[in-house]
Design goal:
The chain is α/β, with parallel strands linked by helices. Helix content is 42%, strand content 15%. A 3-stranded parallel sheet has the order 1-2-3, with helices on both faces.
Length: 105
């Protein structure tokens, strides 16, 4: 991963604890009706592929891309991430993306 992850682990753990949102459960996410793009790195130490696949299954209109890399995909894989985001934004959802599609690279 990039140098951005060279922060002390106790500091990162406190940041991650602040991201816990009890109200954001599966029932809540199942109500999200807009298209959702999910990306996770195969070697991400903070977000597991299992969790992202579960989120992809809960969100009614989502697409999941699993990329070679870690947690800092926008930094470490910027061109690939930008291409995926651009494609997601310019394509007609119903024509170009299957519901709950997962792409592993």
């Amino acid at each position: 991963d990039s140098e951005l992850l060279s922060i002390e682990m106790p500091c990162l753990q406190h940041v991650m604890r602040g991201q816990k949102w009890d109200e954001g459960d599966e029932a809540y996410h199942a109500l999200i009706s807009c298209p959702v793009l999910l990306m996770v790195g195969k070697h991400d130490k903070f977000s597991s592929i299992t969790d992202e696949v579960s989120m992809n299954n809960v969100l009614p209109r989502s697409v999941l891309h699993v990329l070679e890399g870690g947690h800092m995909l926008p930094v470490d894989k910027s061109h690939e991430v930008n291409d995926i985001i651009t494609s997601f934004l310019i394509n007609d959802w119903d024509t170009h993306l299957k519901v709950n599609e997962a792409t592993i690279r």
